[in-house]
Structure to design on (213 residues):
């Protein structure tokens, strides 16, 4: 069995490690994290070095998962690790449901009690967090994070790097533009353009485009 290297030893990295162990697919786990000087181990797994050092450990750890919250950074580090020869596996907790007709991109993680239903498509580096659901025929771009307990109804399209906050809901058939943030507990009942933050019930724009500063 291979080893799994997790890039990012924060809270999300811990959850990735425990989900990966629960699958029984990896016999050993280690982290790389730029705070390695202050972190010798996390959950009993060693922190071997910084993220730039990852390739040194590829012989023992052939697979890698990037556990970095910022989606654009996560995707960038994934591309680098892939070019260095790492496999970018799916990590699906055994208590999650992933439909056999769903398609998940490299490096996507699906945590405990989450569900991904029929014909959903999720891009690279996705996170379907604890107890979240992505329903039938959804199309999620790369780097999308559906936070714990958030629900995305059927036929929804989420652009790259969308962040659906904890406990939020997105009504069926809507489109949420790339890089947008949906606040905790929001009910999204109309389309959301690119790069804005929406919150509330019903959700309204509370911050403009990220590129406006
Ligand atoms: C939406 C969010 C990203 C906004 O964060 P922010 O840009 O720092 O915004 P601020 O905290 O400056 O809040 C701006 C205004 O929006 C309101 N607001 C913020 N989040 C809100 C939410 N989820 N629902 C309703 N109103 C919200 C604030 O009360 C504030 O209102 P005011 O101007 O009347 O005082 C953040 O509040 C949020 O909900 N994050 C989700 C966190 C999460 O899901 N974590 C899970 C990690 S796995």
């Amino acid at each position: 069995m291979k080893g799994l290297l997790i890039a990012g030893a924060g809270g999300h990295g811990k959850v990735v490690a425990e989900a990966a162990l629960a699958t029984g697919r990896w016999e050993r786990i280690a982290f790389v994290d730029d705070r390695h000087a202050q972190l010798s181990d996390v959950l009993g797994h060693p922190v071997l070095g910084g993220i730039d050092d990852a390739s040194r450990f590829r012989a023992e750890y052939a697979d890698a998962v990037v556990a970095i919250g910022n989606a654009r950074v996560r995707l960038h580090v994934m591309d680098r690790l892939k070019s260095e020869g790492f496999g970018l596996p799916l990590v699906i907790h055994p208590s999650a449901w992933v439909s056999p007709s769903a398609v998940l991109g490299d490096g996507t993680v699906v945590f405990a009690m989450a569900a991904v239903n029929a014909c959903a498509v999720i891009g690279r580096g996705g996170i379907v967090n604890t107890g979240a659901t992505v329903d039938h025929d959804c199309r999620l771009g790369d780097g999308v994070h559906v936070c714990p307990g958030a629900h995305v109804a059927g036929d929804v399209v989420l652009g790259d790097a969308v962040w659906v906050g904890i406990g939020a809901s997105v009504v069926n058939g809507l489109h949420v533009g790339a890089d947008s943030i949906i606040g905790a507990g929001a009910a999204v009942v109309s389309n959301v353009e690119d790069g804005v933050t929406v919150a509330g019930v019903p959700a309204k724009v509370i911050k403009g485009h990220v590129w406006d500063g």
